[in-house]
User: What shape does this take?
Amino acid sequence: MLVRIKRLFLIFLLWFVVQGTYAQNNGMTDSLGLSYEYLTSLRTPAAKKILSSLSLDEQKFFWVPYQENYVDFIEVFISEDKNLYDSIQPLISSRYNQVEALSEQNPYRLWMLANMNLQWALVSAKFGQYFQTGWNLNKAYRQITQNHELFPDFAPNDLTLGVLHTIVGLIPDQYRWVLKIVSMQGTVSQGEKEIYNALQQSLKNPDYSFLKNESMFLTGIITLSLSPEHQGVNKIKVEIDKVGTQNLLIDYLKAEILIKTGKNDEAFSLLNKMLLLKGYYPFYFLDYLKGDCLIKRLDTTSDSYYQIFLKNFHGVNYIKDAWRKRGWAALLKGDTLGYFRMMDSVLVRGNKMVDADKQAYQEAQSNKVPNLMLLKSRLLFDGGYFEKSKNVLIASSQMALTKDEKLERTYRYGRIAQNLKNWPEAKEKYRQTIDEGRYSTLYFAGNSALKLGEIYEVQDSLQHAAFYYNLCLQLNFKQYRNGIRGVAKESLSRVQKALNY
Assistant: This one.
């Protein structure tokens, strides 16, 4: 949960992959509708087969270059294959030019161009090409803003605007000066509202029913990642569960919801089914997630799934974290030397763009073995096994702990109490963590302040909620700083609006 902002940003890279099939009056033939349906379920081989066998008349439809671009986007994003990305640059330009040649009276023209720019902005961010990311994001922002002015009743605009405004709202404070230079504005709450509007339009207006899956996906991700106590997740889950089992991306969202809401065993079962599906573009991150589900049970067979991920995935993200968790599996088996061997790989493999990889690298650099009891408690907690996690902490009460380890133990008691709805104990342990860790660079005090804010917000004690959200922003911790502060900032804005209403 602590990496949710970075994860959320990365998940936005997936949003283009969950759109529904367009109706005939949106310019699609049956063949193009089918290929688009395949795209939305990650069946890119089948989609490419259809696109390559279109009739001469169908090849003239404006959806063709957009879908071809879509295929490449999906495969580059999922594989993180830099060579593939470099090889398709001429095709990206050619397809973009074809869409740009559409009549300016066509509301899909600027919408498609904005989406194409947004797609490649997010992919370039994955490769660390931040100048290109900013350039493309700015173009997408200008295009969709203009399209909204020209066609204010065109519901797809709301979805793209919602994504852009949410991304702008998530950008950390130290980079917001760039937004002022390019005059980009937006907040997460604004983006949420726009995406929700698109969802409502998709449910009410048949002309926009194609927006249903993607607006549902985004609403679910934002609710899951940013709302206190995951409020509203059950409501959106009702709609998500109506989607069939042949859409791998919607199943991925279902798995994320199960993981984040502490239903680890259900998530594991779903991932097992997902990995058996045939005909889809390889999605090796699912093996990583399955390893996560196992290690949260303290099951060391998790190691085999991290190995599958590391063997088959040729990107750079979550590589260091997979090696670290292989090290944790070794520790759980009592193999300290094996732990250090895995941490040696953490130092030299992968990248440090996502928080999980950054923390893995810092752990490897410390050259220290984690406290095994605290590690077990953490893993069990992350899997939703709260009573087991608490029992491990109780068993560790007689151990000699360092100052940082004592701080972590207090913090974990607070996290467990919160998830068991024991509000008085949660508040007590979080306050104790803040008092004892106020000047620590570790994240425990900062996240305790955030969690206290969430508890008070749920309890409708908004003045207290605002106090603790603001306190979180004042604390000078380093770990997971951008992610925790990003949630606190958005939460403080939401509470202040409610107080001033």
Summary: DSSP finds 27 helices and no strands in the chain. The chain has two domains: 4-283, 393-501.
